[in-house]
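Re: beginner question about structure tokens

> Can someone show what the tokenized structure looks like for a real chain? I only ever see the sequence side.

Sure, here's an example I had lying around. Input first:
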Amino acid sequence: MLVKRVAGAIGAELQAINLGNGIDAELAKTLRELLNEHEVLFLRDQSIEPADQKALAEIFGPLQTHPAYHTVENLPEVMILESTKENPSKIEMWHSDMTFQQHPPSVTVIRGITIPEVGGDTLFASMTAAYEGLSQGMQRYLDGLVAVHDFSHGFKESLTEPGGRERLADAVAKNPPVRHPVVQTHPETGKKVLFVNSLFTTHIEGLPPLESAEVLQFLWRHASLPEFTCRFSWQPNSMVLWDNRSTQHKPVNDFFPATRRLHRVVSEGNQPY
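And the corresponding structure tokens:
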């Protein structure tokens, strides 16, 4: 297996690897170490079954399901992310997956199924590099602050669609707002990372509303600076593994009216601290 860095702060492409051959203990250990080092791993030409993708995600911990997405038949952990002409994707913002939960995912594993000929890239940003890029004064200011993350905020467009509130009523009821530190400590690397995102974070507790809004807007702009990011162009059977605790990502929805279909599996993480 060859490891090729793709940007200065984040990301590496793994070459000469075929996950279809199975994942033994040594490979699982290597993948975990590489993910801690690079935060996002890219692989090409991985023609595997959904059950194999599920098994890959399981090396990072127990799996989670999602309250709003369709899933592969008989595999509720394998979510279907599909954008079509009739139902284009509504998520265009930088975010970490499912931070509206008490235990957000640790690792996300996605495989490209149907990919448009042009467009549909995904951007990734290192929240480790973003935190380290702040002044010491701002780091001290943020340490100890707590932010609120809300499912309803992230899915507000879906909730306003005809029948949306009824369709998502159970998900809303089961996912009340949660509190996470603005700066969390990565449980494996021990590094500090920013942990707020524009999709699910609503406000910072204890701050006046205007100050909270201005601080969050600054952090979101800062976290997406080009020097903290990399970009991935999808192909069929491309796979991406990312550390959801220390990264954010942004889909580029520039492929309408083409269809894009991805399979996603997420591993359960710890409660951020």
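Each token stands for a local structural state, so reading them left to right follows the chain. The chain has a mean pLDDT of 94.
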